[in-house]
Amino acid sequence: MSEKNRSSLWEGFKAFLMRGNVIDLAVAVVIGAAFTNIVNAVVKGVINPIVGAFGTKDLEGYKSCLKGPCTADDGIEILWGSVLSAALGFVITAAVVYFLMVLPMAKYLARKAAQDAAKEGTQEVLELSELEVLKEIRDVLVAQRGSGSGSGSGSGSTEA
Fold this sequence. Notes:
The chain contains three helices and two strands; from the N terminus they run H-H-E-E-H. The protein is mostly helical. A two-stranded antiparallel ribbon has the order 1-2. The termini are far apart.
């Protein structure tokens, strides 16, 4: 590989890393990993004991046997408690993400968009009022020039 190709590959790689999407994705993965620990703690510390009040203390303990008694060498275990625990974890994660992150952000962005629209409307009104003031100034100047040219002020301009 030539030095030029190696240099362009390196520049392309640096450009890829510096794009905003890559940085945002990396931050999202790190935050998501930390958030997973919180959700797992809630499921294990709150949800599992509540469900366990009706049966075993841990959802992982719920299982069924397909064939014979479930002993060390005999039987086929179906660990449906693990599936239920994972499903509850998913629902809790989705609810927390929606109610604590997505919904407040959507409300914030809607409020910000409304404020921006209001500012834009105010800016248009200001621009229109500035335009009106400039028109009035122009009219006054034209009127003064029209009355001043008849008095022989020597400005050298001629009216059309």
